Amino acid sequence: MVLVTIAALTYRLNPSKAVPRTYEIVIKPDLDNDVFHGQVIIYVVTKESLNGITLHSDELNITDVYINQIKGRYVEETEGRITVKYNNGSIQPGEHTLLFKYSGNFQIDSSRQSRGLVKALYDYNGTEKYVYVTDLEPNWARKVFPCFDEPQFKAKYHIKLVSPNETYVAISNMPEI
């Protein structure tokens, strides 16, 4: 018999420190270059004084970070996590806004293994066409926007997709607002 002791699951975010309430996401795809540009505002409640707020981000190029409209910074951690910090001081308990500006690459789906925002090839009457889709489960939303990407974190989402031009149609499983 083998006995294994695990002290703590350190790859999980701690819900006793910070919890998201609402996300406001804007995504603008650049389909000619297989990239996208995004902005997300996350309304977060912190439950104690923190040196930083840790959340998920994977393969995103973050260009700007703000905490409560004050320029912040982020530190890349392991396993697809980042920690957002004030340049000076700690983050006090209460309600906060995190704003991220970023860009990322569409995953080119040649093997049906791509995750996040995906450019997938399909056959239409013998002609190769592309469709752009999302694959965010179980934990691939972090490839599309910085977030608390674990099932224990429930929040409201407001998503705006900026169409490259009027010939593109966006389809969702939720009603348009």
UniProtKB/TrEMBL annotation:
This is Aminopeptidase M1-A-like. One of its GO terms (molecular function) is zinc ion binding. One of its GO terms (biological process) is peptide catabolic process. InterPro entries: Aminopeptidase_N-like_N, Aminopeptidase_N-like_N_sf, Peptidase_M1_aminopeptidases. Gene3D superfamilies: tricorn interacting facor f3 domain (2.60.40.1730). One of its GO terms (cellular component) is cytoplasm. It comes from Diabrotica virgifera virgifera. The gene is LOC114340546. It comes from the Eukaryota. Residues 19-177 form the Aminopeptidase N-like N-terminal domain. It holds the Pfam family Peptidase_M1_N.
